[in-house]
Write a structure and sequence with these properties.
single chain; 155 residues; mainly alpha; Arc Repressor Mutant, subunit A; three-stranded antiparallel sheet; 66% helix
Protein backbone atom coordinates (compact mmCIF):
# COMPACT_ATOMS: atom_id res chain seq x y z
CA UNK A 1 0.00 0.00 0.00
CA UNK A 2 1.47 3.39 -0.95
CA UNK A 3 1.33 6.44 1.30
CA UNK A 4 -1.47 7.98 -0.70
CA UNK A 5 -3.75 5.02 -0.11
CA UNK A 6 -3.49 5.53 3.66
CA UNK A 7 -5.09 8.98 3.70
CA UNK A 8 -8.81 9.50 3.78
CA UNK A 9 -11.24 12.16 2.70
CA UNK A 10 -11.14 13.77 6.16
CA UNK A 11 -7.49 14.71 5.63
CA UNK A 12 -6.77 18.16 4.16
CA UNK A 13 -6.70 18.39 0.38
CA UNK A 14 -3.13 19.69 0.61
CA UNK A 15 -1.97 16.49 2.34
CA UNK A 16 -3.79 14.31 -0.16
CA UNK A 17 -2.25 16.30 -3.05
CA UNK A 18 1.25 16.06 -1.57
CA UNK A 19 0.93 12.30 -1.20
CA UNK A 20 -0.40 12.00 -4.77
CA UNK A 21 2.62 13.94 -6.06
CA UNK A 22 4.98 11.81 -3.97
CA UNK A 23 3.40 8.59 -5.21
CA UNK A 24 3.64 9.74 -8.83
CA UNK A 25 7.28 10.71 -8.35
CA UNK A 26 8.08 7.32 -6.85
CA UNK A 27 6.32 5.48 -9.69
CA UNK A 28 8.17 7.46 -12.37
CA UNK A 29 11.49 7.00 -10.57
CA UNK A 30 10.87 3.25 -10.25
CA UNK A 31 10.27 3.06 -14.01
CA UNK A 32 13.45 5.04 -14.75
CA UNK A 33 15.54 2.88 -12.41
CA UNK A 34 14.20 -0.28 -14.09
CA UNK A 35 14.92 1.07 -17.57
CA UNK A 36 18.48 2.07 -16.69
CA UNK A 37 19.12 -1.31 -15.09
CA UNK A 38 17.58 -3.33 -17.96
CA UNK A 39 19.05 -1.37 -20.89
CA UNK A 40 22.47 -0.38 -19.54
CA UNK A 41 23.02 -2.32 -16.33
CA UNK A 42 23.24 1.09 -14.72
CA UNK A 43 21.74 2.97 -11.80
CA UNK A 44 20.07 6.33 -11.33
CA UNK A 45 23.02 7.73 -9.29
CA UNK A 46 25.40 6.79 -12.12
CA UNK A 47 23.08 8.47 -14.62
CA UNK A 48 22.88 11.56 -12.40
CA UNK A 49 26.66 11.80 -12.11
CA UNK A 50 27.06 11.48 -15.86
CA UNK A 51 24.36 14.15 -16.36
CA UNK A 52 26.31 16.55 -14.17
CA UNK A 53 29.46 15.89 -16.20
CA UNK A 54 27.57 16.33 -19.48
CA UNK A 55 26.71 19.87 -18.34
CA UNK A 56 30.39 20.59 -17.57
CA UNK A 57 32.51 19.36 -20.50
CA UNK A 58 35.71 20.60 -18.81
CA UNK A 59 34.91 18.33 -15.88
CA UNK A 60 34.13 18.89 -12.22
CA UNK A 61 36.10 18.43 -9.03
CA UNK A 62 34.85 15.67 -6.78
CA UNK A 63 33.62 18.11 -4.11
CA UNK A 64 31.62 20.00 -6.76
CA UNK A 65 30.07 16.76 -8.00
CA UNK A 66 29.18 15.86 -4.43
CA UNK A 67 27.58 19.27 -3.84
CA UNK A 68 25.61 19.21 -7.08
CA UNK A 69 24.34 15.69 -6.48
CA UNK A 70 23.69 16.35 -2.77
CA UNK A 71 25.46 13.15 -1.71
CA UNK A 72 28.60 12.40 0.27
CA UNK A 73 32.04 12.47 -1.26
CA UNK A 74 32.34 8.73 -0.62
CA UNK A 75 29.29 8.05 -2.77
CA UNK A 76 30.72 10.14 -5.61
CA UNK A 77 34.10 8.43 -5.33
CA UNK A 78 32.56 4.96 -5.54
CA UNK A 79 30.46 5.82 -8.58
CA UNK A 80 33.40 7.59 -10.24
CA UNK A 81 35.66 4.57 -9.67
CA UNK A 82 33.09 2.29 -11.34
CA UNK A 83 32.57 4.59 -14.31
CA UNK A 84 36.31 5.11 -14.72
CA UNK A 85 36.83 1.34 -14.70
CA UNK A 86 34.33 1.08 -17.55
CA UNK A 87 36.05 3.83 -19.54
CA UNK A 88 33.10 6.24 -19.25
CA UNK A 89 34.84 8.94 -17.18
CA UNK A 90 38.42 10.00 -16.62
CA UNK A 91 40.25 11.87 -13.89
CA UNK A 92 42.30 14.83 -15.11
CA UNK A 93 44.85 16.67 -12.97
CA UNK A 94 44.07 20.26 -12.03
CA UNK A 95 46.87 22.56 -13.08
CA UNK A 96 48.55 24.16 -10.07
CA UNK A 97 47.10 21.69 -7.55
CA UNK A 98 48.81 18.29 -7.52
CA UNK A 99 46.29 16.85 -5.06
CA UNK A 100 43.17 17.84 -7.02
CA UNK A 101 41.66 16.49 -10.18
CA UNK A 102 38.58 16.93 -12.31
CA UNK A 103 36.32 14.17 -13.49
CA UNK A 104 34.99 14.35 -17.02
CA UNK A 105 33.18 12.12 -19.47
CA UNK A 106 35.27 10.27 -22.02
CA UNK A 107 34.17 10.12 -25.65
CA UNK A 108 32.65 6.71 -24.93
CA UNK A 109 30.95 8.15 -21.82
CA UNK A 110 29.43 11.01 -23.81
CA UNK A 111 28.13 8.59 -26.43
CA UNK A 112 26.60 6.30 -23.82
CA UNK A 113 25.12 9.18 -21.83
CA UNK A 114 23.52 10.61 -24.98
CA UNK A 115 21.73 7.29 -25.58
CA UNK A 116 20.75 7.00 -21.92
CA UNK A 117 19.43 10.58 -21.84
CA UNK A 118 17.31 9.98 -24.94
CA UNK A 119 15.76 6.89 -23.32
CA UNK A 120 15.28 8.80 -20.06
CA UNK A 121 13.44 11.55 -21.92
CA UNK A 122 11.23 8.95 -23.54
CA UNK A 123 10.36 7.41 -20.18
CA UNK A 124 9.41 10.82 -18.81
CA UNK A 125 7.27 11.61 -21.86
CA UNK A 126 5.56 8.23 -21.45
CA UNK A 127 4.95 8.89 -17.75
CA UNK A 128 2.85 11.92 -18.67
CA UNK A 129 1.17 10.36 -21.71
CA UNK A 130 -2.19 10.38 -19.89
CA UNK A 131 -2.29 14.18 -20.02
CA UNK A 132 -3.01 16.32 -23.07
CA UNK A 133 -0.94 19.41 -23.91
CA UNK A 134 -3.28 21.78 -22.08
CA UNK A 135 -3.29 19.65 -18.96
CA UNK A 136 0.51 19.43 -19.01
CA UNK A 137 0.74 23.20 -19.32
CA UNK A 138 -1.75 23.77 -16.49
CA UNK A 139 -0.02 21.29 -14.18
CA UNK A 140 3.35 22.89 -14.92
CA UNK A 141 1.96 26.36 -14.14
CA UNK A 142 0.28 25.23 -10.93
CA UNK A 143 3.37 23.47 -9.65
CA UNK A 144 5.33 26.60 -10.56
CA UNK A 145 3.06 28.57 -8.24
CA UNK A 146 3.73 26.09 -5.43
CA UNK A 147 7.47 26.39 -6.07
CA UNK A 148 7.33 30.20 -6.12
CA UNK A 149 5.37 30.29 -2.85
CA UNK A 150 7.95 28.02 -1.23
CA UNK A 151 10.87 30.12 -2.50
CA UNK A 152 9.21 33.32 -1.18
CA UNK A 153 8.83 31.67 2.22
CA UNK A 154 12.55 30.92 2.31
CA UNK A 155 13.62 34.42 1.24
Amino acid sequence: MDQEARVHSEHPDELRLWLRMLTCTQLVEKDIRAGLREQWGSTLPRFDLMAQLERAPEGLRMNELSRRMMVTGGNVTGITDQLEGEGLVERVEVEGDRRAFRVRLTTQGRRQFKAMAAAHEGWIVEAFAGLNAGELHTLHQLLGKVKQHFLQEIA
